[in-house]
Design goal:
- It is a single chain.
- With 366 residues, the chain is α/β, with parallel strands linked by helices.
- It has one domain: TIM Barrel.
- Helix content is 43%, strand content 13%.
- The strands form 2 sheets. An 8-stranded parallel sheet has the order 3-4-5-6-7-8-9-10, with helices on one face. A two-stranded antiparallel sheet has the order 1-2.
- Helix 3 runs parallel beside helix 13, helix 6 packs across helix 7 and helix 11 packs across helix 12.
- It is globular.
Amino acid sequence: MAMAMALSDTIICLTASNQLPPPASPFNSLKPPLFWPWQKVKMGPLSVSPMGFGTWAWGNQLLWGYQPSMDSQLQQVFNLAVDSGINLFDTADSYGTGRLNGQSEKLLGKFIREFTGGKRIQDDIVIATKFAAYPWRLTPGQFVQACRASRDRMQVEKIGIGQLHWSTANYAPPQELALWNGLVAMYEKGLVKGVGVSNYGPKQLVKIHDYLKARGVPLCSAQVQFSLLSMGEEQMEIKNICDSLDIRLISYSPLGLGMLTGKYTPSKLPQGPRSLLFKQILPGLEPLLVSLREIARKRGKTMPQVAINWCICKGTVPIPGVKTVKQAEENLGALGWRLSSNELLQLDYAAQESPRRMIQNIFQTK
């Protein structure tokens, strides 16, 4: 299967013009789809779009300024994504601050139920939700209960991918095995179609893969911070492990929390906690931002579209976050074309030449 995944990715990337051909249609006004049906990628037993959307902002007031008044626009974002062929949406039971805890899952469930495109399309939607390794989740049964609670919030029969949000191996090793057994139990009980992990480093990723395999449970996805700002030795090792073990890598923060969009400078920072991080990293990103800007100009694309396309061409499934229709439309522009091998090399080199890197998630293990 690893060979099939690699071959599929290679065939998709190696198009002569790096553009999709127009559909065979007598109607010249019809636009080609963003990607063709055979370009879906395998994620365990599931077939997903080459890009998904992340919903961390859907309910998070502290970092992303969410307000319930945004819900109607978020539903438009969801409808636009699904109408455009996107069927993967990433969320978590911890997304949503304070009284809004679980709000992201609730909104996704509501949007699926109210989508008017037909039951077949609704059934094709894959929700990948993450279950937090809270200190009080000490037994497999408690982890299964967390899965049931997420399912109830979304009001779905079965969750697409149930993911362990982070590993406790660094600070509570006994809890780790209980959580692994919880993944096994939710899979065996038919609560999820597949299981995945998030924020697992290379060593722990191999360990949990081998453990789950021995229990007859395939590990279908591994979600880590992966972008032109997060392509260090460890992240590339994770990617190589995923390729060798038939695990699909989901790349979160493909735009470096917004640093790769070109919208910010050391003198123009975002509001809120992100500004502290941007202040540290942005001054050292000039080589990378110059290359992104140059390729975007030549391609008639935007910098975010180029950065997301880089993740796709690396064989990952990026999940950029979206809050507005404008953001969704821009992210969708990352599909339907491919960076050339020379452009990929140029970006890789520029990323290596930039003296600053994204700080890795403190929850990622070794």
